[in-house]
Amino acid sequence: MKTYHSKIQEVKERADIVKVAEYFRLNLNRANKCVCPFHKEKTASFSISKEKQIFKCFGCDKSGDVISLVSELLHINAYQAAEQINCIFNLGVDFNKKTSSIEIERWHQKQKAKEAFKKWENETFQLLCDYFRFLEDKNDEETFQEIAKAEYYVDLFIFGTESEKLQFWKLNKKVVNKIAGRLRRRTT
Which CATH architecture group holds 4-89? Predict the structure, then answer.
C-alpha cells in the first residue's frame, strides 16, 4: 500500500519543475529565472534549478521543490498539489487508494522535521555570513585559514544539495556553536 508521503514523493520524482512552472505561466527566461510570483518586484529574483528540481527566490527567500511551488501558487496543501500535478501531467500515480491516519501523521512529523531543518539552515547560513564578514576585518595567518573554512561553509549552503547540508548539520554542530559563541563574545 502506498503511503501518503510516498505518493507525494513519486509525483516529485516524475514531474519536471520547469514544465510545471511553464504550465502555471511563470515567464521563465533561458536561464530559468523570472519575476517572483509570491511578491511584487521588477527584477527577476526567482530562479529554478532544472538539475536539482528546486526553486528559490532571492527576494522573498521562498524556496522548495515542485510540490511546494504548486502548493504556494494554488494555496493548497502538499497532497493536493501532488494530485494536481499528477492529474495535469498524467504521471500515473494512483491517488484513489485511501491513506491511513497513521501514515498521514507520520508524513506531518516528517514535514515538521524538514521545517525545523530549514529554519536551522537559514539561521546557520546567516551566522556563517556574519562570521565571514567578522573575519574579513582581521589580518593574520590564523584568520586566513578561518576565512577559507567560512567561505567553504557559505558556498556549501549556497550551492550544496540538501543531503550535503544535512551531512554538514550532522558533522559540524560543534563548529557552528563555536562560531556563534565567538560572534556573541565580539558583540558583548
Answer: Alpha-Beta Complex (3.90)
On whether the CB atoms of residues 85 and 22 are closer than 8 A, the answer is no
Return contacts of 175-183, CB within 8 angstroms, 24+ apart.
Answer: 176/124, 176/127, 179/127, 179/128, 179/131, 180/127, 182/131, 182/134, 183/127, 183/130, 183/131, 183/134
pLDDT band at 75 (very low <50, low <70, confident <90, very high): very high
| 29 vs 34: CA distance, rounded Å | 6
pLDDT of 16-46, one tens digit each?
999 999 999 999 999 999 999 999 999 999 9
- The C-alpha cell that represents 122 in the structure block: 537559514
pLDDT tens for 92-127 read: 888 876 666 776 677 678 878 888 888 888 899 899
Indicate the SS3 state at residue 158: helix
Q: C-alpha grid cell for residue 66?
A: 515542485
